[in-house]
Amino acid sequence: MIRSLAIAAVLVFAAPAYAQSADNRLTLTFETGAETGAVLVALYDSEAAYEGGQPTRVAQVDVAAGQREAVFDLPAGTYGMKAVHDVNGNGKMDVNPFGMPSEPFAFSNNAVGNMGPAKWDRARFEVAGATAQTIRIR
Amino acid sequence: MTPTRRTLFMGAAALAAARVLTPDRAYAAQAMAASADWALATADVEGDVAPRALTLVHGRAPAGLAGSLYRNGPAKFRRPGGASQHWFDGDGLIRRWRVEDGQATLAARFADTPKRRQEAEVGAMLMPGFGTIADPRARIGSADDASPANTSVHKVGGKLWALWEAGSPLAMDPETLATEAFVTLRPDLKNMPFLAHPRIEPDGRIWNLGVGGKQAMVWRLAADGTLEDAELVPLPRASYIHDFSATARHLVIVLQPWVHARNVMPMSAAFAWTPEAGTQVLVIEKADLTKRRIYDLPPFGFFHVGDAWEEADGTIRFDLCAHKDMDFAARGAHEVLNGVPLGHDPAELAMVVLEPNGRGRLERTGVVGEFPRSDPRRAGLARRFSLHTTGERADRPLASAVAVTDWRSGRTRSFDFGPGHVTDEMVYVPKPGSVHEADAWLVGPTINLKAGVSELHVLDLMHVEDGPVATWRADVALPAAFHGNWV
């Protein structure tokens, strides 16, 4: 699922995030463990989308160029975020020979799963007005 | 993880008694007897143990004995909101027994793992393990998040590596015992497993496996911990592999008929005992991992093997502690944690012989034995001696004795500390300047149950039956540990 998210993010990220309402601006700041590559971000607006559908927004944070933030102007509502740090810049989340992720990943609320991706109930958060989260991805 | 030892438990008398008592009455009676005896072996330690001097209570420090015995084993199993369900799942406590200038000291610190931090914060044991299922509150993004780092400890380069078997090595400072970070040997191999029983060649090169179902990563590291090679090899079956062996030229992987059969937790419930499949031994050439042979042996279970060697005619030999089955792993180690052995045969020391003609056999000794160790200078080479624990019984789940088996004479000599002690694995320490295999000490701790403290003992390999030449006593009791090394 993480892999599909990463691919989706890469495919769609060319579509610019467009302003919905500057009154509901979400700012995600990523604290990375490496200074290379990019953080691929996918934002979901429902549990169904988060657990297996399409993201409502995607973004790419060019870590190598010094970027650390992704900013979204959104309708107020409930969201969940998945991110992967593509450290080596090959456009995907790498896995080790046993299929486990070998590049850092993170979820909104800095949620961690229980032997799998963090579920919606741990990752969901409200966007209402200016909203910010700092995400540790290392 | 670990485990070891096992065993033990089942004397004929206890068994006979259990047959006439109802199971719950027998259970309760054994629980009372057991908790009165060796509960210190699986007791909780509440915090790090600051460095402290030990008191010499017997003999004298052998001239020339200087170094540190680093050992690792679980020492925290219970928190108010929930407890580990299996002996192998407690938090690793790294102990350093140091002998220097005739004096001995002890220090110990817990591996400061993500597991331990989360569990301390919540006040409950949360993480899944060998025999424990995950608490719904656990936050687990990788196997390392669940690692108790509790199985062994090696000095690699300038660091200690606390080892588990399903995750990465955990680097620690050998002086302060402070935890540093999980070791990633190469970025693309992050989060790959690394067994707690690497095989170390006499020049320091490290071979190890990381096991995942019917595949194993073969790790080859320089003595300083630098990765030299990592290559996946297929396995003929998804056996539980805690330990493996090696000759100078081969990796020797014993595949017991305790095989992954279902995707359930805990891990111990995912394996099935299939004796009809027998036990296999996979021999792989170190120089070309595609060159392999498979030998068939009768069924037995095991945790631990000794260093292997190859004779001039190509015959491969290694010692191994054979269990009748793996019931101890599946059930017994739950019981040990609660002081309630229900009856398990102890392991028997045996020699595996793999002939060049493709035939293999298991030569049993009739000697109870676990935790085999030998001369690290002869790892992979012909040798004469195995050190091991002995004396485990059905009604005494942990060893009280240590032994030296001489494979040339077939004789085993032992020293029993008595029912008032639980013995740990002891390691082989060469005497300074010696080259002969017999010129060595056994060094290792026991728990003195009556005094309620841990002790460190030194025995002479050639006079092991005479008991310790030196014993130091601590002012604290540390629970039984699994494995360690003399540095």
Automatic annotation (TrEMBL), chain A:
Signal peptide: 1-19
A Pfam family annotated for this UniProt entry: DUF2141
Keyword annotations from UniProtKB, A to Z: Signal
Protein name: Uncharacterized protein (DUF2141 family)
Natural source organism: Brevundimonas bullata
From TrEMBL, chain B:
UniProt binding sites for Fe cation: 197, 242, 304, 483
InterPro entries hit by this protein: Carotenoid_Oase (IPR004294), TAT_signal (IPR006311)
Cofactor(s), names only, from the UniProt record: Fe(2+)
EC number in record: 1.13.11.-
Superkingdom of origin: Bacteria
Protein name: Dioxygenase
Keywords in alphabetical order: Dioxygenase, Iron, Metal-binding, Oxidoreductase, Signal
Family in the record: Belongs to the carotenoid oxygenase family.
Pfam families: RPE65
GO biological process: carotene catabolic process
Cofactor note as given: Binds 1 Fe(2+) ion per subunit.
Signal peptide feature range: 1-28
GO molecular function list: carotenoid dioxygenase activity; metal ion binding
